[in-house]
Design goal:
0% of the residues lie in helices and 60% in strands. The protein contains no helices and twelve strands.
């Protein structure tokens, strides 16, 4: 489900059997100023006595043509990891209450590491947003619509178990 804007014109003629209706879609671009506060994202996650990683992204708010830059640092590795991937996910929420509907779309997913890492290994992350047709983040528009973006970091072990951490990011449109 997507949010669209359109203009509908209805011509009512008294002696006609049906009314004439014409709809025309139009675009709305909402420019925003650069956020004054744009903290980096730094988190430590892990599995007790098995895996402990620290990931850091340079900021939490990005303009639509920006690049996400970060790093993943392995502090403890006691499980065999096959690969690690990162995904950019768009989540649209429409409706409210019992009529709430969520739709997730994976915009991109790519492997950033292949093979088992060792303690102290650092994996760089760089994702250019200009490659994608993105729109800004919208939060609770009239309590009926939200559009949010997430970075999803996934590690897959040799038994094909998936370990993941999802982090919300904010996108904004600059002039």
């Amino acid at each position: 489900m997507a949010l669209i804007y359109f203009l509908r014109v209805t011509i009512v003629v008294r002696k006609a059997i049906t009314n004439t209706v014409k709809e025309l879609d139009f675009w709305v671009q909402n420019y925003q100023p650069e956020p004054e506060i744009n903290n980096n994202i730094k988190m430590e996650v892990g599995i007790e006595d098995s895996l402990h990683i620290e990931f850091e992204y340079d900021k939490s708010k990005y303009h639509l043509k920006d690049a996400i830059v970060g790093k993943i640092y392995f502090l403890l590795v006691r499980i065999k990891i096959k690969y690690m991937e990162i995904a950019l996910i768009k989540r649209e929420t429409t409706g409210s209450g019992p009529n709430l509907f969520n739709e997730n779309e994976t915009l991109t997913k790519f492997e950033i590491m292949d093979g088992n890492p060792v303690r102290g290994e650092l994996i760089p992350v760089r994702l250019f947003l200009s490659e994608f047709d993105l729109t800004p983040t919208y939060r609770t528009v009239h309590n009926k619509f939200s559009l949010k973006y997430y970075l999803n970091l996934v590690l897959v072990d040799e038994d094909d178990k998936r370990y993941f951490k999802q982090q919300e990011i904010t996108l904004w449109r600059k002039k």
